[in-house]
UniProtKB/TrEMBL annotation:
Residues in DRTGG domain copies: 214-318
Protein name: DRTGG domain-containing protein
Any Pfam family hit: DRTGG
Annotated signal sequence range: none
InterPro entries per the UniProt record, alphabetical: DRTGG, P-loop_NTPase, Phos_Acetyltrans/Butyryltrans, Ser_kin/Pase_Hpr-like_N_sf
Self-association and partners: Homohexamer.
Top-level taxon of the source organism: Bacteria
Species the sequence originates in: Paucidesulfovibrio gracilis DSM 16080
């Protein structure tokens, strides 16, 4: 049995995406896959079962039937943190080891998902990623997502700390305009320094997309028209604070972008609606006029109304689109295909067997 611990250099780097794609790829090859997320920070109840939200989702994607208490033996709640910071929580590793032994029975490959950022997340209670991977005898697959740049210093540090237990690195969400530099400069440099680059996944707008209904919830707003189209997908956003003529020029270049605009700018709102934007986000808690509402219903373009000002909403949108979780079936299917075409799973298999 082979164990693969999936860690990352930062939060929201694509651990679920890689875990799902790897698990589905192995299952297609007839490999029996198990899954575990030893430390979970998003408690969720399903019936009588309590576990981690990511873990519930991954079990569904991979079609696995496992006890959530075994899949995530350490569940971080507020009460857990209070105890950890006061009286302590004792040694949690034995429970993790026992759960791993149970889940890995009759399994060919165990996928162990990391939690939080880098490999020291959880150090305050003795369950940091590096220790968990070592205690379970797993090799680590490290994901580095391009947030403006790649964290090459962190990758080199991981190579020194993990040595041969680092199976390799996957570079995720690399923009097209950085691809040549990554392929010709950074990857050869990292390879020369002992890091196996297993794949470079390009940026893809679908992977950062979010449904209008989910967006309304995240922005603490409400949908005031075309409620039946709350499933429309937003891939990006554009701020409509400029003059109409200038806005139209930018708008043509940004399809599938939500338009953030003041509730009093009906001129920009109408242009955006007629241009088939996926949704309007009206700021300042201002209700749209009757003309805008009517066109919204006719064109089936949802309008979100939020209390915040335009600048605040734009900053929230940046965070939401960069950290939105992998949840939709469409994103799972698309993401798995994207990873499969970008990552050398055969090379990963050879490294794990060596």
């Amino acid at each position: 049995m082979v164990g693969i611990y999936i860690g990352s250099t930062a939060g929201y780097s694509g651990k679920n995406l890689i875990a799902a794609a790897l698990g589905l790829h192995l299952q297609k090859q007839g490999v029996k896959v198990g899954y575990m997320k030893p430390v979970g920070a998003m408690p969720r109840r399903e019936g009588e079962a309590v576990g981690d939200e990511d873990a519930f989702f991954m079990l569904e994607v991979l079609g696995l039937d496992a006890d959530p208490a075994l899949v995530t033996p350490v569940l971080v709640t507020r009460d857990f943190k209070v105890q950890a910071f006061t009286d302590g929580v004792g040694d949690l590793m034995q429970g993790i080891r026992d759960a791993y032994a149970e889940l890995s029975r009759d399994v060919d490959v165990m996928i162990v998902a990391g939690s939080g950022a880098y490999l020291d997340s959880g150090a305050y209670c003795g369950v940091e990623g590096a220790r968990v991977a070592r205690e379970l005898g797993c090799k680590t697959l490290l994901i580095d997502r391009h947030f403006g740049e790649l964290r090459y210093d962190t990758l080199l540090r991981a190579r020194r700390e993990l040595g041969d237990d680092l199976a390799g690195v996957i570079l995720n969400d690399v923009p097209e305009d950085h691809r040549r530099e990554v392929d010709e400069l950074l990857c050869p440099f990292l390879e020369r320094n002992g890091l196996d680059i297993l794949g470079v996944i390009p940026s893809d707008p679908v992977m950062g997309a979010i449904r209008v209904g989910d967006l309304a919830e995240r922005l603490s707003g409400k949908i005031v028209s075309a409620h039946q189209r709350a499933d429309r997908v937003v891939e990006n956003f554009l701020i409509g604070t400029m003059q109409v003529e200038n806005f139209m020029t930018h708008f043509r270049r940004h399809k599938n972008s939500a338009i953030i605009v003041g509730g009093d700018r009906s001129d920009v709102q109408l242009v955006a609606l007629e241009g088939a934007c996926p949704c309007l986000i009206l700021t300042g808690n201002l209700y749209p006029n009757d003309i805008i509402l009517t066109r919204s219903e006719v064109l089936e373009t949802p309008i979100l109304m939020v209390r915040d000002d335009t600048y605040t909403v734009a900053k929230k949108m940046e965070t939401i689109l960069s950290s939105h979780k992998l949840r939709d079936t469409i994103k799972v299917t698309h993401g798995a295909r994207l990873v499969t075409t970008s990552v050398d799973f055969d090379k990963l298999g050879r490294i794990l067997e060596s």
